[in-house]
């Protein structure tokens, strides 16, 4: 995940890293990563390279130079500017941002937009589903035309999430499965992956406990062995994005996290 191999911006766990953003591609390549997911929030909307033609060109060039495809864009901006906004004028402006990001994903040869439907943007909030229905009905045709998947990372109960996604019956609407969030929200992996496995198109590798949000991989309560067994059972073919806890030495941590994840892939999926 973009920004996690460079110094933190303020106290944010993840964010666009600022003017030195381009240096992260070389660092990631040297560590052995084979893809990257970008992230954008409100504070970086006007400076993120993804939002300009020149910046998109730079991303394509860096991706090619370092053999690091851009998997997708994590749209944290919508946790700050929710897509379940009741004010029509505000919602229209946020829809405009989302459409620009879908277009931008296409321009950098990415195939995924991830929408965190959490906290203030949760579909569990009153009228949230109904408002977001209108958002999806407007942007799914664009996403489908550009072949961009819209993936929801949500805090809905597994059966409810399955029902919500399946009702649209659209191959470009799916789920981003976050291993740590499952633990944090108290869900059972046995009642998640078997229910909505066919919609999982991307997986975030994170460890949590019920008390602590994001701890070093292998030190929390997330049952990675069970998760990977189930992903194998249901023939998961997507990618894995490290979104693990920050540490004092993020480069050392990233190296250890990558080794940990590769060991799970080798054990269960290769």
Topology, please?
Elements: H1 23-31, E1 36-40, H2 53-65, E2 70-75, H3 77-80, H4 88-107, E3 112-117, H5 128-146, E4 149-154, H6 158-166, E5 173-178, H7 179-184, H8 193-196, E6 200-205, H9 224-233, E7 239-242, H10 250-268
Parallel strand pairs: 1-2, 2-3, 3-4, 4-5, 5-6, 6-7
Helix pairs in contact: 4-5
Question: Could you explain how this protein is built, in words?
Answer:
Helix content is 42%, strand content 14%. Strand 3 (112-117), helix 5 and strand 4 form a beta-alpha-beta unit. It has 10 helices and 7 strands. The longest helix has 20 residues, at 88-107. The two termini are 23 Å apart. It has a 7-stranded parallel beta sheet. The chain has a single domain (23-268), classed as Divalent-metal-dependent TIM barrel enzymes (TIM Barrel, Alpha-Beta Barrel).
Instruction: Give the termini distance in whole angstroms.
Output: 23 Å
Low-confidence stretches: none
> Strand count, sense and closure of the main sheet?
7 strands, parallel
CATH fold-level assignment? TIM Barrel
CATH C-level class: Alpha Beta
The number of strands is 7
CATH H level, superfamily name:
Divalent-metal-dependent TIM barrel enzymes
Looking at the overall shape, the CATH architecture is Alpha-Beta Barrel
Instruction: Give me the Rg, rounded.
Output: 18 Å
Secondary-structure element order, as H and E?
HEHEHHEHEHEHHEHEH
The count of helical stretches stands at: 10
Quickly count the domains: 1
- What structural class do you assign from the helix and strand content? alpha/beta
Largest beta sheet: strand ordering: 1-2-3-4-5-6-7
Strand content: 5-15%
